[in-house]
Automatic annotation (TrEMBL), chains A, B:
GO CC terms of this entry: plasma membrane; recycling endosome membrane
Protein name from the UniProt record: Cation/H+ exchanger transmembrane domain-containing protein
InterPro entries: Cation/H_exchanger_CPA1 (IPR018422), Cation/H_exchanger_TM (IPR006153), NaH_exchanger (IPR004709), NHE-6/7/9 (IPR002090)
Record's subcellular location: Cell membrane; Recycling endosome membrane
Segments passing through the bilayer: 57-75, 87-104, 166-183, 195-218, 351-374, 394-419, 440-461, 467-486, 532-553
UniProt-recorded Gene Ontology molecular function terms: potassium:proton antiporter activity; sodium:proton antiporter activity
Source species of the chain: Gasterosteus aculeatus aculeatus (three-spined stickleback)
Length: 742, 742
């Protein structure tokens, strides 16, 4: 472990060797020296073999997931609560990892060729001229030194290793989108101030506290000679950033099942969803910073500085490599100090980058959400749920791609896209599509999540460059604990100064305890495991995730009962804690919120909702008269029609009233919501559930018959209509039925 | 075009050059010669850039799909029938292809490196030692000669080109699974004999007719000097195999919408689904055969035979390649004759392989289906629809992977898995999961299908080695037409000898006309485009697909009205043509079928259904008494309970009776089904639709409360119970409500 396989992060070699002519060395790893064997194993056989191997590997994961599902069922069925499904997936992953590591020895397939060439760059695409035929190779990434050495043994392990980008580009987006899409917006918006504080300020605090503590530990380790490689201050901060992302999955699933206090739930959920976004942006900014620092430092370091850090006991595997140039390995060796060129200026700059990336991603996500809402509003795609669902899925996915293509953070964009989709687009969808999208993303989320956790378990044994340093691990656990404490307690104290509905000390303890680390932390840490520091971070992070998921996740139920926090609270009712906020005082919620949010509420209700959905007051009523024609164009005919229908028949006024009230309750703009809002709406729900489906079907047929053209009645714009009926009461993505209409 | 870039199919070089030491040549394509530029473009920048580019490319496709969806909606909305959505997707694809080809010129990114080395093998994984760091490269495939030459211009085009395996491994499985899952099994099984005849015998006939005609054309082309490369008889047969796969998508979607005669629909659908499977296996067997032939031929050919077939006008791009060895290029050059070592022995052997692969895939697919059915039957996963859906999805997917890992054909396995799942597992699922799985696969199918058709359109311009040969294209169109005719008309004549319900000549014309080529043909032909013959095939296939989808697909509605074939037939009613088969004669269907099918029906009803689902007679009644304990273990308690419930209350006997009847109608084992089966069941449907949901909910709760243990009543085995009630009448994957229960 005495070497630092740098690269991959783009350290520039001090000087470029001449490109033409050059000498290439070439060695076959594990080739048994007989060329006949090589001949017989023809390309397409290898490709076939490789394809089969890939299928078998994927099959391992599918089997793992299947097992997990069956065991989850058993646990749910028997009402075991001490272990969540994610913890279970991890256990299965660990088991398979152990089997693959110690049980299976696949004969090495003699096909790995090491090409050594003096070119100082690894291109993304390589065309190899093999005796006149050209083969295209794509860069998969750098492999560790040890790996080249162990290829023989670790073929199987290497095969089950996924490209880390898979996590970021395929598995995380559905998870994050689902989090946004199923957000309980009423409670979320009520606590938005606190959530933002925890997520932004708290995560930054946590990141720096952890970073500083780790820096102390690392310095100590260096002093006592426990550190086997470089570890810079930016590395410490990076570590702080990645382990500050709490996981919205595990504990919250338990909370949801147990029906814990809704405000506590909203705080935890909101925080953990948003701090994922913060952590991603923070870590990518730090990474960028570090690269720049490294590049700068690389320029001033002399090639011989520190000597070629070359694995001492491992020359054997390179015996045939004649032209090895150890220079670029040490191209970056910091010039003496360990601060890694971390300066105030860079700090400020990175803060700017942070804001830019975050707001850019935010804007992009919201913009795509708006576009989807407009498209679903102004076409009658509702008639074809399949098309609608497909469009919804594609638009949501394109957010991610668009953000990545623009250089923003796709995952963050997808989160806000999800929130926007749930807030606006969801209301435009046909009931069928509402179910479909909800179920689709639920399924994708479930599969992706369990896959990640299985893989995590597997990685504990299949990853080949683990660096477990007891001191570092101890430090990390301490730092994570203190970082979480420094996030929750001081912020809660400050927030309680402004909150009417205080966050009790018990709740603070629960929030402290529930700071699990999960998929996001894992994905961030596996993204780059090229350096010693990163490997140590990865191994430690893995342990932190395991510990929190198993111990904290499993301990949640005992913890709650120990804290005597009431469970079984109906999420639609207010919690005992916030019971003062009953219907008659609901309008206080609005006043309770800070003025920016009040402005936002009004703006949303008066302009965005009518513009983007079929509900809300017609724009003709809310926009100034000068915008009359535009307002008429943009207002959905249903806004008028619903109004008219409401005035026409009073028979179903109870349902309408209740629905309207709950709509108002949702966004807390209760211009005319009666005092009995909550009771009434929850009372009506049981009654209306039976007939909803038939109503929906009728409403949908009506829509289908009505045709696509925007029928613009020439009525005068009426007074701000506070009563609108729902043509198709949706059941929302989360578990709150029919509350998203406003 | 005077060269034959072989390889990739594994031709063995005549003699292996010594491996060590060797000389490597190395040239940078398009490098502007200044090494500074190379230095600055660091690896991670490139990776980032590449990632962005990939995102942008994927975004193009998503945008295409989004556009397609919107236009489809417009078309459906306006009731345009002349162009199906797939044709539309192709048009959009073509437009984007044109833009990419002629409009966009992305500056080439200087990152492609050509490594030339004298090793006579292209390994699957390449480790490149770049100045001491090791990078892993994975084989992407062989690139055409022209490609290396044009890298500068075609960067963008190359980027939007997917790995052909993507089609086979990602896009086709959901399409095929959906086809199997949504198969209307009643009509399918009623016509199973004819369908099998068309699919197996017909496809083989078509393959050989097309192959022979093409061989004639190719020989003629060779004679008049129109052929620019090699084209062997196996190539012709391969072409016959790939264009014999008719597409179950386009016309059938139209047929389904128009509600054409159900038997015609079943014949077309069944044939096109099954002949996909036949074509896959046939083509892969031919490929294997060809490889062996080529290998054998390669061994006897002298290196100089025919002279090095080397592009004459293109030496420029290889000017720096010093050690080019043209030997292996011509390693396979057939020894004079063009028959490509196609012999009777090989023919017979390949028939054996065909049977082996087909039956293996079939068995695997059915086995996984059985396993899923057993798992869903004996666990109470129904209580958790999410888990159930996830399990269903994973098990279905694992079929594909398992088959591929075993060396069978995944797509074929997935087809039969889909049929089995629909026939058994579907009945065990909770109503919620039934909807979910149906909708999920519908969505996946829709997306995959439209993606493939968009990509097809794009490929027309983005594919870089098109070989459009007018004579060959003319021959191909003629051959496809004749091949289809040779399939349909003679077989229909023969089948009509045995069929009571004759296939009219009008129907035959429609079947002839509706032989569209689609996704499968495309996927099969793009799988390998390395040789001249394959490229010509690919280009021609593309044109055939375009023609059939646009002309035949668009012309279906006029064709039907021209033929005066009645539309608007209720798929649950019998068609006018088969109106003789009304309820009272339904049991004749059984006798009408050949005895193997009768045996199968009885076996299925008496043993498989009770074993794999909750319906059917208890196994205790159907199995011999010696198997009593086993039968009691395997019989679902619901089978007894339902029985008991039926005897208990007579109030809902009409519904029960109808349901039972429709069950019997489904599999046509009508031991006690009354004469009024069809009328009654369709009469009850409208009535029962309203209360089904509530019933289901009740039934489900009951199940949830009852717990998991199999409660085994100690009743004596009753007489073969022909009356069972449905605890939860499912709505099936297709459009036939509640017919799958048996």
């Amino acid at each position: 472990m005495g070497f630092t396989p740098r690269g991959f992060l783009g350290d520039k070699p001090a000087k470029a060797p001449p490109l033409f002519p050059f000498l290439l060395t070439f060695l076959l790893v594990g080739s048994r020296g007989d060329s006949n064997a090589m001949d017989n194993v023809s390309t397409e056989r290898l490709a076939e073999e490789s394809h089969r191997q890939d299928s078998a590997n994927l099959l391992i994961f599918i089997t793992l997931l299947t097992l997990t599902i069956l065991t989850i069922w058993l646990f749910k069925h028997r009402r075991f609560r001490f272990l969540h499904e994610t913890g279970l997936a991890m256990i299965y992953g660990v088991l398979v990892g152990v089997i693959l590591r110690f049980g299976v020895h696949v004969p090495q397939n003699m096909s790995d060729v090491i090409l050594g060439c003096a070119v100082n760059n690894s291109p993304a695409t390589l065309l190899v001229n093999v005796s006149g035929r050209f083969y295209e190779y794509t860069l998969k990434g750098e492999v560790g030194r040890g790996k080249g050495h162990q290829v023989q043994d670790d073929e199987m392990l290497r095969k089950v290793t996924f490209d880390p980008e898979v996590f970021f580009n395929i598995l995380l987006p559905p998870i994050i989108f689902h989090a946004g899409y199923s957000l309980k917006r009423r409670h979320f918006f009520r606590n938005i101030g606190s959530i933002l504080a925890y997520a932004f300020v708290g995560t930054v605090i946590s990141c720096f506290v952890i970073g500083l503590i780790m820096y102390g530990f690392v310095s100590f380790m260096k002093a006592v000679g426990q550190l086997g490689g470089d570890f810079f201050f930016t590395d410490c901060l990076f570590f702080g950033a990645i382990v500050s992302a709490t996981d919205p999955v595990t504990v919250l699933a338990i909370f949801n099942e147990l029906k814990v206090d809704v405000d506590l739930y909203a705080l935890l959920f909101g925080e953990s969803v948003l701090n994922d976004a913060v952590a991603i942006v923070l870590s990518s900014v730090l990474l960028r910073l570090e690269k720049q620092g490294r590049r700068g430092a690389g320029a001033v370091s002399s090639p011989g500085d520190g000597g070629p850090v070359w694995p001492q006991g491992e020359e054997g595997w390179l015996a045939e490599n004649q032209t090895f140039a150890p220079r670029s390995i040490v191209a970056y060796q910091p010039a003496g100090d360990n601060s890694h060129s971390f300066e105030a200026m860079a700090m400020l700059k990175s803060f700017g980058v942070f804001l830019g990336v975050f707001s850019g991603s935010f804007a992009l996500g919201v913009a795509t959400g708006f576009m989807t809402a407009l498209v679903t509003k102004f076409t009658k795609l509702r008639d074809f749920p399949l098309l609608e669902t497909a469009l919804f899925f594609l638009m949501s996915w394109s957010t991610f791609l668009l953000a990545e293509a623009c250089g923003f953070t796709g995952v963050v964009a997808v989160l806000f896209c999800g929130i926007t989709q749930a807030h606006y687009t969801f209301n435009n969808l046909s009931p069928d599509s509402q179910d479909r999208t909800k179920q689709l993303f639920e399924l994708l989320n479930f599969l992706a999540e369990n896959f990640i956790f299985s893989y995590m378990g597997l990685t504990l044994f299949s990853f080949q460059s683990h660096v477990f340093n007891p001191l570092f691990i101890f430090g990390a656990f301490l730092a994570v604990f203190l970082g979480r404490a420094a996030n929750i307690y001081p912020l809660s104290f400050l927030l309680n100064l402004g909150r009417k509905n205080k966050i009790g000390s018990k709740f603070q303890h629960v929030m402290m305890f529930a700071g699990l680390r999960g998929a996001m932390t894992f994905a961030l840490s596996i993204r780059d495991t090229a350096t010693y520091a990163r490997q140590m971070m990865f191994s430690t992070t893995l342990l932190i995730v395991f510990f929190t998921v198993w111990i904290c996740g499993g301990g949640t139920t005992p913890m709650l009962s120990f804290m005597s926090i009431p469970v079984g609270v109906d999420s639609d009712q207010d919690s005992p804690n916030s019971a003062v906020l009953d219907g008659s005082q609901r309008r206080d919620t609005k006043h309770e919120s800070a003025w920016p949010f009040r402005i936002w509420y009004n703006f949303d209700h008066n302009y965005l909702k009518p513009l983007l959905t079929h509900s809300g007051p017609p724009l003709t009523a809310t926009l100034p008269t000068c915008c009359g024609p535009l307002a008429r164009c943009l207002t959905s005919p249903q806004a008028y029609e619903n109004e008219g229908r409401l005035f026409d028949d009073d028979s179903d006024s109870i349902l309408n009233d209740a629905t309207v009230s709950s709509m108002y309750a949702d966004v807390t703009v209760s211009t005319d919501a009666s005092g009995r809002t909550v009771n009434r709406s929850s009372g009506t729900r049981g009654l209306s559930d039976d007939c909803v489906d038939h109503d929906l079907a009728l409403a949908e047929h009506e829509v289908a018959i009505r045709g696509t053209r925007l029928v613009l009645p020439v009525d005068d714009p009426v007074e701000p209509p506070t009563t609108v009926t729902l043509p198709s009461p949706p059941s929302p993505p989360g578990s709150e039925p029919r509350r998203q209409r406003l």
